[in-house]
Amino acid sequence: MSQPNDTPILDLLVIGGGVNGCGIARDAAGRGLSVMLAEMNDLASATSSASTKLFHGGLRYLEYFEVRLVREALIEREVLLGAMPHISWPMRFVLPYASDMRFDTQTPASRLLNAVMPWMKGRRPAWMIRFGLFLYDHLGGRKILPGTRTLDLSAAPEGAPLQDRFRKAFEYSDCWIDDARLVVLNARDAEARGARIRVRTRVTAARRTGDHWTVTLEDDRGTPATVRARALVNAAGPWVGDVIQGKVGLDSRDGIRLVRGSHIVVPRLYDHDKCYFLQGTDGRIIFAIPYETDFTLIGTTDCDHPDPSVKPECTPEEQDYLCAFASSYFRKPVTRDDIVWTYSGVRPLYDDGAGSATAATRDYVLKVENDGGAPILNVFGGKITTYRRLAEHAMEKLAPFFPVMGAAWTAGAPLPGGDFPVDGAAAMRERLAAAYPFLDAFALNRLVRAYGTEAFAMLGDAKDAGDLGRDFGASLTEREVAWLMEREFARSAEDVVWRRTKLGLRMSAESIAALDAWMRERAAAGPTA
């Protein structure tokens, strides 16, 4: 893996294989730059696979008057829908209203309302919520998604799972996204455009050498390598500060605030396919989202998480909080006994000095440092909805150092498998069912939602289930796992069942162990012909 010093110098080395790193690598490669991405673990193995799985404008950010961020995210929703209709789709959100709903008392909107209408004592009036939704409908130039409407919960089916005290709700639009697949597909497209993607490869040191960087890498076997690059992009997420101080050795005053967001997954709480936006009396909000057909995803929390080396976990206190929050809305209480899975991620927010984790800005900040010669771009914060725009802005920051690079191109460019209409998933399932009649409804839906048009390439010339090889359970076969290993950088069963798919929710521990053993044997045997 080591490279001599007379090898060509890369244009860009991207550190971090989350959504920002892979988005930047894809954008840069498509502009004609030579790119390498180094990720110390699996792609999307940290924050980018632990989101609430939404492309959304951030309705609650309007309370902080972050209008630019919300507008950019709202515009991006429909741009992204068109590029990835297999892994993202429209979803309607039901916001039940009750008179005791309150603002977070630290928000600018709360302080303004308390000053103008002190008798409200922090409560959210219905007219203010509706005005916020009016802005939400119109800030982003919505074309595909339907607008807000008011529901009578005493008659509407959306009221059936809720307690009787909720008589009214507002329904608006946002979008679902398979976050981990988003990252992998960006990496795949970057690779198709010439980038080199190195998973399980850690950056151990970087130093400026004249007009470029000399970077030392180490893979998971302990094999070192040295590469040279004209510019670095530090998109290491929670470890961005470690790269700045520990690997590069810069004296930077910019910092991040690590905020843990935890989620719980329970058996399906209701029959329809809409999400609930739930507001608490403490001013916070959570979502209850239909998840993987048979489950409901509930989250998220906002807790400071000072040490990125400590693996984030959904604590018993957070589980209790989410269960109690959901139980204050639904007829059937949610208890910890219902939880089938939990996950947590650490959001690396730009440290703007906010008083609470909830109030810390979700906007991104890009800082270029080139005082000593070759530039490094440090990426702070960001949200999954704006990853593509973040990548464009990153390239704008780097443009002075690469005057011959191409223009912006990613708006409207589909990700692998996404070359079909936004409303074309049902037709795609019909085509797949006709070509592979031995697949059941669950497998058909899952494969279309994961691979889109590439499902045909993955299944190939299979005439029956036996042609797909061993069945590991929950419709996962040898043919699919081989695709994930050869095309999507998967190395372990964890990569497959918790990131490339969510089939860990359906597979036994024994089946997952058997899958891991099979993958190790296949990797040891080397590439197939």
Sequence-ordered SSE layout with sheet pairings:
Elements: E1 10-15, H1 19-30, E2 35-38, E3 54-55, H2 67-83, E4 88-97, H3 108-116, H4 126-138, E5 149-152, E6 168-177, H5 179-192, E7 196-198, E8 201-209, E9 212-219, E10 224-234, H6 240-248, E11 256-267, E12 275-279, E13 285-291, E14 295-299, E15 303-304, H7 316-327, E16 341-350, E17 364-369, E18 376-381, H8 387-398, H9 425-435, H10 441-451, H11 454-459, E19 471-473, E20 476-477, H12 478-487, H13 493-500, H14 509-525
Quick summary of this structure?
The protein is of the alpha+beta class.
Description:
With 529 residues, this protein is α+β, with helices and mostly antiparallel strands. It has 14 helices and 20 strands. It has helices spanning 19-30, 67-83, 108-116, 126-138, 179-192, 240-248, 316-327, 387-398, 425-435, 441-451, 454-459, 478-487, 493-500, 509-525; strands spanning 10-15, 35-38, 54-55, 88-97, 149-152, 168-177, 196-198, 201-209, 212-219, 224-234, 256-267, 275-279, 285-291, 295-299, 303-304, 341-350, 364-369, 376-381, 471-473, 476-477. Strands 3, 4, 5, 6, 11, 12, 13, 14, 15 and 16 form a 10-stranded mixed beta sheet that branches. Strands 1, 2, 7, 8, 9, 10, 17 and 18 form an 8-stranded mixed beta sheet that branches. The protein has a two-stranded antiparallel ribbon with strand order 19-20. A hairpin with a 3-residue loop joins strand 13 (285-291) and strand 14. Helix 1 (19-30) packs across helix 8 (387-398). It is globular, with a radius of gyration of 23 Å. It starts with 9 loop residues before the first strand and ends with a helix. The mean pLDDT is 91.
